Amino acid sequence: MSSPAWLSKKLDDGRIACEACNQHCTLTEGEYGICGIRQVINGELLLLTYGIAAAVNVDPIEKKPMFHFLPKSKVFSFGTVGCNFSCQFCQNADISQYPKEHHHEIIGSKLSPRRAVELALEYECSSIAYTYNEPVVFFEYTYDTAKLAHEAGLKNIYVTSGYETHKAIDTIAPFLDGMNIDIKGYSQSFYKDICGASLKPVLDTIEYAHKKGIWIETTTLLIPGYNDSDEEIRSIARFQANLDPYMPWHISAFHPMYKMVNIPRTPPETLRRAYEIGKEEGLKYLYVGNIDDNARESTYCPSCTKLLINRHGNIGQYVTNDLVNLNSCPYCGTVIAGVWK
Ligand code: SF4
Q1: Res. 317: pLDDT tops 80
Q2: CA-CA 20 to 30 A from 207: which of 11, 41, 168, 215?
């Protein structure tokens, strides 16, 4: 199924500029964008994966990961094939890189925006996540779904690499409640050589979406020898602390994947080191991921330091339910940043 990729404009020279992401593809008849799923046909840019989901699941919200967003709720999660990045460590390369590696073939099952919302309600989810591959590449599909989801009382989340244009954010913002944005590293060479993208637009997206009032959590996958030096970790933490020290930062362990199967797993000490650096830089909510570390997966009040949400793996347990109702620490009254209802 395909649909007009309306987040685009015709240029004077006849090409079509896609306005969804910061790869800024300008395409002529028959050409595909870098994502492999937007193509010019008969003078119009089309989204080839509209209504075709390549992965669908009902997940705990903590798995996105979103730790300050309706904790313990279920999230209806889906994605399509295609991606604007080409990360050599991608954990979903079987779908994200599929069109580029299979002559632009589109695979998946039919899932209309309306059916996605119906299923989310049937499975008693509180939100829909556009995830598994980069949501902005199937922007128009996410937009139509997110609009219906809001009408049905569901929230919407992008799990994203942070390459949205301002226009994309402006357009989806009325319906987008949360984003988990990757900060994959803090060097242009890492972004360019390992991910096929650039660092600066990602930092800009985080700042811009934050300014728009969208709830943001960030994630960094630490890869041994690539982005795990003290300097690089500190730069990420400092950027985020300067922007908003109450924005949660998830520091995750790498597992050998895709084109990086010869790189070892991230040692737990590296995650603990990053956690300490984040604290030194002033971040209030730090979480390690992909390893079992109950103490560093749990949420504490930034003022009185009492335990508020006790987590094991991706499952959260309230120490007290008051947080949901009060939006604040039940022990000392400090407001806890996040989306709680
Ligand atoms: S969404 Fe795809 S076609 Fe559009 S600019 Fe990004 S990579 Fe290019």
Answers
A1: no
A2: 11
